[in-house]
Amino acid sequence: MSQEGKYTSVEMDEKKSDEGNNDLEQPFDEEFWLKVQKKFDSEGISWSRAMDEVRTERLFEKHGKNCLLVIIRDWPISDDYRDQPDLVASLEYMISRFTEIILEKVDTDTDYEDFRDEEDETEPTLLHLAAAQNFSHVAAHLVRHYPSLVYQDTEVVGEQRAYLPVEMALMAYKDETAAFLISQMKPDWVHELFLYNANLERAKFSFGQLINHRNPLTNEPDMKKTVVAVLDCLINPHWPYLSQAKKEASKDSDHIERAWTSVPDDPLNYDFYYHVLDGDNEGRQPKINGEKNKEFDAKSKSCLRHLTESSNKV
Predict the structure, then answer these.
(1) Domains of the chain
(2) Cα 58 to chain center, whole Å?
(3) Out of the domains of life, which is the source (predicted)?
(4) For the segment 78-131, what is each residue's pLDDT rounded down to a tens digit?
């Protein structure tokens, strides 16, 4: 038997034993292995890549456009992975590979930018679902293909407000994904998450709470990357070329990136946005337009003080 034949035979047997009991996919039967062998021989790709491509093709045949929804939403809560965070972490690696392949091969009739989970009344996007699972690699693939997903809200249902994908990660204290999504957002959008919101009568999120949040098992700060990502957004580039009116209009536009790509890459200067660090527990600023804010709670700790007193040194 040739060296190539030996290699193929070993891979097939090994993968069968690893994946044979997986109820999430069809069995790895003879037809499956023949398709893998054909891809491996004809397309000049690795054996593992050939397997992944055949597996994603079968998923698409079974679920159609919903295949990404199924693997991101349903697989982590299946019997094989429910309540097993260590296994879900390894599952994300496989899901991210499948997501990359599906998005690379997607056609114009299968555009996931406007895709929503219609079985959920809040209609989250795929990025919302990935953020809630802390699937940072999956989120990266989605954002690379569809940058505007970071600005898409869920639907308002009853008293429940709309949420951005990053908010799903922040609410669940998913550090990796929250930090990544914040890094992909414009600074003013990030600021609004931590400043006083008149409708809510508080900030959407407390930056001080993120600074001090600890893993309940290790008692170690577990939002370090997110804290750094927020601080990075406080270094605010100043682009006088882009009017405030245009910025405000872009918030509700499907073409939000278009406004930003029309300005030069280099700003005239940089400002440090102290408002988030100076705010009280509710995100209220000490001054508004140069005037003292009567609602500001001077007795509460500022986020800057939370930073200096915390052990969250990064």
Answers:
(1) 28-185 (1.25.40), 186-234+273-313 (no CATH)
(2) 26
(3) Eukaryota
(4) 988 888 888 888 899 999 999 999 999 876 556 788 899 999 999 999 999 999
